[in-house]
Amino acid sequence: MADLFPPLVTAQIDDKPKVDEKVDYSNLPCPVPYEELHREAYMSLKPDTFEGLRFDFTKGLNQKFGLCHSVMMGPTEVPSQSPDTVIKIPTAHYEFGANYIDPKLMLVGRVMTDGRQSARVRADLTDKLMVKANAQLANEPHMSQAMFNFDYMGSDYRAQLQFGNNALVGANYIQSVTPRLSLGGEVFWVGVPRKSGIGYAARYETDKMVASGQVASTGLMAMNYVQKVSDKVSLATDFMYNYFSREAVASVGYDYMLRQSRVRGKIDSNGVASALLEERLSMGLNFLMSAELDHKKKDYKFGFGLTVG
Amino acid sequence: MDSTLSLKPRGKGKGSKGAPSSNDKSKYQLLKEWSNWSLKKAKVATHYGFIPLIIIVGMNSDPNPHLFQLLSPV
């Protein structure tokens, strides 16, 4: 009988601090970067499905430096006149890449056999200031794109300035308002075609769920909700609405992180169902299977691949 | 290129009246042309030099990997 009482008393003492905890508004956590606002939702709902064969081999020479070779064979889509038909051309290419990943500096470069190159640089100039650059270069003139970002991380806010080609200038800012809610906004101006836009975003997260929303003057409105059912399973749903063209898309997806594999799947209101399976066959050897069924356009894509290293 | 060639004789024909304004315009155009030229050179340099740059930075990081490790497929 005496043994029953002590556990009840300790349980009450543990609950009280959680309820009486006052929000310390001068000590809020730093929010998620503005472009990662919808990170959890897009991890479940936009897995990178592919079509054909994919083989990636990554060789690490060093803790920080590695080379990677990848072969991709499969049909690639070519934009067609009408939105109903899909034109595919079978292609095969080899891509060579080099990565250098350091806590302060990250350099990632990839070059393909047709001359297309992608380069990504991320450098921490100081503790709070970070520079990022992202470029896709091609041999044909006027087909290259580049974007430079300067990020400043404050104690409970983040600010970013962007410069891109075609005279694109943008800035965004996100601030933690409470320990769980963060609000942000962005402005951008494009030179060609002359367009400017403004957008607002909000994100609310707890241990079990993340909800975020974004509105932009380009007509985009997106809302998504992710529920972490357990540490292995998370479910997500997303709603995107364009209020100029009056088109809405809703999707529901799941993400199962099991010990040896990871399965992600989603179904869409456009009649698209897709899934991606990554299975770890042994240490360093991963097997990938991807499927995307577009019932409206009657376009079925299946892919398989192997990742080594 | 063609448009600037056709404009130049007309500018000279106008005489000294239009000279100060054409000097200012040419400064701005010089700046634009210089920035276009430098961007083109930067694009070519990045296109050919970025991956060798990563390899050089990586080979000089410690522990230094050997050239043989870079080239062998294992």
Automatic annotation (TrEMBL), chain A:
Gene Ontology MF term list: porin activity; protein transmembrane transporter activity
Protein name per the record: Mitochondrial import receptor subunit TOM40-1
UniProt main location, coarse: mitochondrion
Family of the protein in this entry: Belongs to the Tom40 family.
Keywords carried by this UniProt record: Acetylation, Ion transport, Membrane, Mitochondrion, Mitochondrion outer membrane, Porin, Protein transport, Receptor, Transmembrane, Transmembrane beta strand, Transport
CC terms in the record's Gene Ontology section: mitochondrial outer membrane; pore complex
Domain of life: Eukaryota
Membrane topology: Multi-pass membrane protein
One GO BP: monoatomic ion transport
Record's function text: Central component of the receptor complex responsible for the recognition and translocation of cytosolically synthesized mitochondrial preproteins. Together with TOM22 functions as the transit peptide receptor at the surface of the mitochondrion outer membrane and facilitates the movement of preproteins into the translocation pore. Directly involved in the pore formation.
Keyword Hydrolase: no
From TrEMBL, chain B:
Entry annotated with the keyword Membrane: yes
Keywords, comma-separated and alphabetical: Membrane, Mitochondrion, Mitochondrion outer membrane, Protein transport, Receptor, Transmembrane, Transmembrane helix, Transport
Disordered: region residues: 1-26
Keyword Protein transport (UniProt): yes
Designated name of the protein: Mitochondrial import receptor subunit TOM7-1
Cellular compartment(s): Mitochondrion outer membrane
Topology term for the membrane: Single-pass membrane protein
Gene: LOC108815024
Protein family (similarity comment): Belongs to the Tom7 family.
Name of one Pfam family that matches: Tom7
InterPro entries found in the cross-reference section: Tom7
Residues annotated as signal peptide: none
One BP annotation, GO: protein import into mitochondrial matrix
A GO CC annotation given for this chain: mitochondrial outer membrane translocase complex
